[in-house]
Amino acid sequence: MSAALDALQSALAAEHAAVYGYGVVGGRVGKSRQAEATEAYSAHRARRDGLERAVRDQGAEPVVADAAYVLPFPVPDAPAAVRLAAVLEDRIAGVYSDLVRAAEGALRREAAGALREAAVRAVRWRGSGVAFPGLAERATRQ
């Protein structure tokens, strides 16, 4: 598998997880942020569907969603749901950062746009930004 296709499949897998995660966020977030959660859920579904098409266009079979995903922490209330949304966006930014690095042309532009969108949503959820969206999570692992 090429580096671009591998990164594309990773982005697709992350979008599957984000769609699942936003189902949890939407069920716990307060009414004041419900529209924001719904908008993010829809955006991730659209990205997921686009990535599935892109993988097929490369002649590969798209990775499928898991039946369920382990959340990084319990989400019993609205503040935890907001934290989860920020974590989801940080993770998405990371995989799109990898796709930007691996892809070329239109796919690279699309990945850069998705990275930007994830970074903006993360700032909205968290209330603050990070210096290098998509790389912050990696910096803490080293």
Structure explained in plain terms:
There is one protein chain. By secondary structure, the protein is mainly alpha-helical. The chain has one domain: Ferritin, core subunit, four-helix bundle (Ferritin). The chain is 73% helix and 0% strand. The chain contains five helices and no strands. α1 (3-28) packs antiparallel against α2, α1 (3-28) runs antiparallel to α3 and α3 packs antiparallel against α4 (105-126).
Give the helix/strand layout.
Elements (H helix, E strand, L loop, with lengths): L2 H26 L5 H24 L20 H25 L2 H22 L9 H6 L1
Shape: globular
Structural class comes to: mainly alpha
In CATH, the homologous superfamily goes by the name Ferritin, core subunit, four-helix bundle
Number of helices: 5
Radius of gyration: 15 Å
CATH C-level label: Mainly Alpha
User: Oligomerization state of this entry?
Assistant: single chain
